[in-house]
Amino acid sequence: MSVWFGDVSDVDFASMRGGTLIENLGIEVTEVRDDALVGRMPVDARTVQPAGVLHGGASVALAETLASWAGHLAVDRERFHAVGQEINANHIRPVSSGWVTATATPAAIGRRSHVWEIRIADDAGRLVCISRCTLAIIEQRSTYAPPEDRSVG
Question: Taking every annotated instance into account, which residue ranges of this chain make up the domain Thioesterase (predicted)?
């Protein structure tokens, strides 16, 4: 049974990421499963710290992106919008190259809040970071949109 609200096959993540931190970090959604959202991010000059390993903040940005998009898919997007409320992360091991893949699964999906668990792994499948993100579900039409349809300011 799917955790998503309605048909999510037409959600265009690529256009929504345009002109955002998500695009700048190279984050992309790779799979929408019935019970999880999967995405990836490169470990490169955009995402590493001065020591040459994945920056913890980049891992958190990846985790919150996947959680927020998962929340977006799990609500009636004509009536509700998911916004980040709290996030934590435990960094397990360093990564210096390749890609990291994040999988967001629901820990709790309520009417007014969601909690998502995000596990980030390296190319070898080893756990790099585990995060938990709480989303507030607010009663307003979702404002996720491609750059040309966004109001800024």
Answer: 52-129
> Looking at the domain assignment, is residue 67 inside a domain?
yes
Asked if the structure places residue 144 within a domain, the reply is no
Range of the domain at 110: 21-138
Overall domain count for the chain: 1
CATH number at residue 121: 3.10.129.10
Q: What span, in angstroms and rounded, lies between the C-alpha atoms of 131 and 116?
A: 8
| Tens digit of each residue's pLDDT (9 = 90 or more) over 24-34 | 999 999 999 99
Tokens describing residue 32: 């929408």
Q: With respect to residue 150, please indicate whether it lies within any of the assigned structural domains.
A: no
Higher pLDDT, 36 or 10: 36
And the tokens for 153?
């300011």
pTM for this predicted structure: 0.96
Q: Which active-site residues does the annotation give?
A: 64
